[in-house]
Amino acid sequence: MLARLSKNPPSARLRDGLIALACLLGQVIYLAVARFGYHRFGFPLDDAWIHQTYARSLAQSGQWAFVPGVASTGSTSILWTLLVTPAHLIHIDPRIWTHALGLASLIAAALGAARLVDEDKHWVSLFVGLAVAVEWHLVWAASSGMETILFAALIIWFWVWFSRNDPAQCQHQWRRGLLLGVWGGLLMWVRPEGVLVLAVTGLYGLFSRGDLRKRLIWSAAAGLGFLLLIVPFFGFNYLIGGAPWPNTFFAKQTEYAALWSKPYLLRLFEQAKVMWVGGQALLLPGLLAYLWQWAKKRPVEWVNVLPVIWVILHWALYAARLPVTYQHGRYAIPTAAILVIYGVRGMVSVIRPRSQQLAPRAASLVWISSTVVVFAVMMAWMGAPAYAQDVVFIEDQMVATAKWLDGHTEPDSVIAAHDIGALGYFAPRSLIDLAGLVSPEVIPFMTDGEQLGEYIVEMDADYLVVFPAWSQGYEQLVAGSCFSPVWAADESAGIIEPSPLGPMTVYEVVCRADR
């Protein structure tokens, strides 16, 4: 097969068509398993409903608000929320629209991956694109309703652009520097950590070979391009929330600050480890081979490994500030495509499937076939059921609870809750967000159960909605005499598995603040 492909490589159009078809097949499998195997259709993350709530509010009232009439910056990705908004303007099922956005982003990521290795033969770029298309983390992200896959796609296309506009090769043209800054600003509108790409490439361009004056002008142009988008970004957040960053920037870090007690190198290892679950584990030798071949070349061409450096720094940033690996390493998922791209590229440089010697020929064929099989198995037989079970959890816990509240509480009720996504979408009420996304005032004491309880009573909340075993603080919170359980998610029909956090429970607040 490889011999035939080598002699007759596919055309660019055929390659792209096959890659897009693989992306479509992957998402169809994920959604079909959830819909027909588990009888659920939704999202595997409660945060996806946060985007939908902001998008609906924007479409219906022109307000950037989670709670009707109360402006807030609880959406981490402004651009993704804007892309979701048309579904609410034209009144189609937002789940269908958002899954279509995810599919389009996955296709863009896979096609961009193919173009990142376009200097190789088309069959190499075909294999790279197909590997990205079926990498199970990326298919999960494409079906998650979140901005993760869009961020991954834009990251890949950024590296495609940068590889063709290497400042060292383009004599540090200021126009290209300006575009670099615009790229950095655009990525920040998708995810705040997108600025890391600009930092990596900006430093590379500043210190790469070339005339010093041109390098300084190029760097200044990059800074100007960045300001063109980052000033509106900060201004938008400050105008609405009173701070330059979205509330999530601080809330998540505070909630998981206890994880900082782990040694930093252990946190970094955990960030990296979660991205090697799957077929890419078999590509690790290929990645190492690529890095070894790069290190031996003289002069050293740093531009060829900048994406890998970015991956390591991305892990390092999260290990330092938000060292979580839950939900299949959702914050590290954008790095998966880069690992796959360079792993396949290195593997291709090492394999010898047509060698005259039996050992290297057999080893190459075993390596290739086992990698293909593991990618397929992880995507279809492990990734799809994992995705479906994640959707079940959100539908049976968060969505079911929100729908119960919508039918059993008054519209003017005040609800204190930790997970607000589905609640805000299906049961719009006045909210006290215990996770701090739209109620940033709770961030300083959000892990203290006693203080949270006092605050909930002080704010005259009518109901408390939490997982009782979410944390020690929440166990302390719900044990207080002011909170009486009235309903739990395991009482709804169709629950498949109980939550290890305890069922999401609705408590009536029976205490009232002294007046």
What can you tell me about this protein's structure?
There is one protein chain. Helix content is 62%, strand content 5%. With 515 residues, it is mainly α. The chain has 2 domains: 2-264 and 275-386, no CATH class; 390-509, no CATH class. It has a 5-stranded mixed β-sheet, covered by helices on one side. The chain has a two-stranded antiparallel sheet with strand order 1-2. Helix 2 (12-37) packs across helix 8 (136-142). The protein starts with a helix and ends in a 6-residue tail after the last strand.
Quick synopsis:
Helices cover 62% and strands 5% of the residues. It is mostly helical and 515 residues long. It has 2 domains: 2-264 and 275-386, no CATH class; 390-509, no CATH class.
**Helix/strand order:** HHHEEHHHHHHHHHHHHHHHHEHEHEHEE
Strands side by side in the biggest sheet: 4-3-5-7-6
Label the overall shape. Answer: globular
Rg, nearest Å: 24 Å
- The number of helical elements comes to 22
User: In the residues, how many domains can be counted?
Assistant: 2
Going by helix content, strand content and strand pairing, the class is mainly alpha
Q: What distinguishing features does this structure have?
A:
515 residues, mainly alpha, 2 domains, 22 helices, globular
